[in-house]
Design brief:
This protein is 39% helix and 25% strand. By secondary structure, the chain is of the alpha/beta class. Helix 1 runs antiparallel to helix 3.
Length: 229
């Protein structure tokens, strides 16, 4: 009886192990497939970004709904007392801030401008009529690790909230400028094209799933062989 009970217990443990391993294989296969989807999305994004750097900039006041990374220019003036800083931004190994200011176009639109990166918070944007050129960006949603915005400390761009904080009707996108009009602020354009490593990530997940599959088959074969003894 004890031997039968021990065999049943081992059989249950083996089934549990096999089920867990199978579920893990499915998860790894899912992650690999997700990375392949991300690869396609990244390729499209990189193509859009590369193409945008070749296009001619259009006037913000002439565009109703621009595309992502579309080159635009705006003529007008910076609005006083609308400077905000995006905290904890690394540039060339140094911690600093992204400097943003609201720009009022000649057509009466209010556009948030990312002027560039600075080692410290810099107020007082240049005054007078200016022409600002850059590419459009749409704010991304914050991840779980980003702190909540607590004005005057900002960690991510929320244009609706900023419209209320700054009391201006901001456009639903912002412009990353190719010049800061201030030697203390380093422009963040042109964007370096980031590497597309998603195929390598996908192969890593698939290889792990394959290795677990081999281990599962070996374990099954070994267990069946022992049952026959």
């Amino acid at each position: 009886m004890k031997e039968v009970g021990l065999k049943q217990k081992k059989s249950q443990v083996n089934r549990t192990f096999s089920l867990f391993t199978l579920m893990l294989i499915l998860v790894l296969l899912g992650l690999g497939t997700w990375q392949l989807q991300r690869k396609v999305e990244k390729e499209a994004l990189l193509e859009t970004l590369a193409q945008s750097q070749k296009n001619t900039a259009l006037n913000v006041d002439d565009i109703k709904t621009p595309t992502l990374f579309q080159p635009l220019y705006a003529t007008g003036q910076f609005v006083p007392d609308t400077t905000i800083f995006l905290q904890s931004k690394i540039h060339q190994g140094k911690n600093g801030v992204y400097v943003f200011d609201v720009f009022q176009t000649q057509g009466g639109r209010y556009l948030l401008i990312q002027r560039g990166w600075a080692i410290k918070e810099i107020l007082n944007p240049p005054q007078g009529n200016l022409r600002i050129e850059g590419i459009t960006r749409v704010p991304s949603s914050p991840n779980y690790f980003q702190p909540a915005n607590s004005p005057p400390a900002y960690f991510w761009i929320d244009l609706k909230a900023l419209s209320q904080d700054l009391n201006v009707p901001l456009l639903p996108y912002y412009l990353v400028a190719n010049t800061s009009h201030d030697p203390r602020i380093l422009p963040t354009l042109p964007f370096p094209l980031p590497p597309n490593n998603h195929l390598e990530y996908a192969l890593t997940w698939y290889n792990l799933a394959f290795a677990l599959g081999i281990m599962l088959l070996w374990n099954r074969k070994y267990y069946l062989k022992k049952e026959k003894l």
